[in-house]
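Justification of computing resources. Each target in the renewal requires a structure prediction run like the one illustrated here; the chain below, 266 residues long, is used simply to show the kind of job we budget for.
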Amino acid sequence: MLAPPILLALLLGGPWIALVVAVAVVLAGIEAFRLLTAAGHASFPALGVVLAVVIALGDSVRQVPGGSGLLLAAVGLVLVGSAAITRPDPREGLATLITTTFGALWVGMLGFVPRLAAADAPVVDGSVLGWLGGERAWVLILLLTVWTFDTAAYAFGRRFGQRHFIPHISPGKTVEGTVGGMIAAVIVCAVLVAAVGRPPIAGLVLGFVIAAAAQVGDLAESMLKRAAGAKESGRLIPGHGGLLDRIDSFLFAAPVAFLYVVAILG
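Resulting structure tokens:
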């Protein structure tokens, strides 16, 4: 269900990627704050969702000294703090401030997908995927690497899984599934990085860090669902749960991929 609009936005590029991310942040933010409430953590969901969008896309606003995204996020935190001090119990107010800020920052990290596109890291003209340009090629590599990890981890876990991996958070995950998923992700990423004309060894490292971050992102959401007593984040996607269940890996993988591409390959 998610793949067609994501791939279409990737084909169109530019503001379409940001638009898909904005919609995803709003929907996932609603689910995230619903889970936080169910887990016993009070928050300001409406403010949190708005702040998440600001964190995700604030840098697309006209640049100002200090960074437009940081400035807008700071204004959002002022509003959240102003709402928190109205709570009669200071401990409740502090907890509400912390929860709202955490939820917004967590979901807002999806904004590193359009940031990765905006970085426009170099690719080699004439390479297999060079026609995509740096704006879209690295986002495609991120998407396919995460999808490969998730799919292969599930398949390897089902076929070979015997030893549980962090069972207190996600009993269904296995060591074999995780290892299989990471190997598949590293291979696919190396091939894709070579297809944009960059050294395959860079793809091996990028694939490993993306897969590792994706696994942590998935487990982080599982931890929240377990605390909330929920099996899924929502019912937006029939048979697959909520949107947050579909993008949880990207919340951690996107900033890691952005840092690596910009610092090492940029």
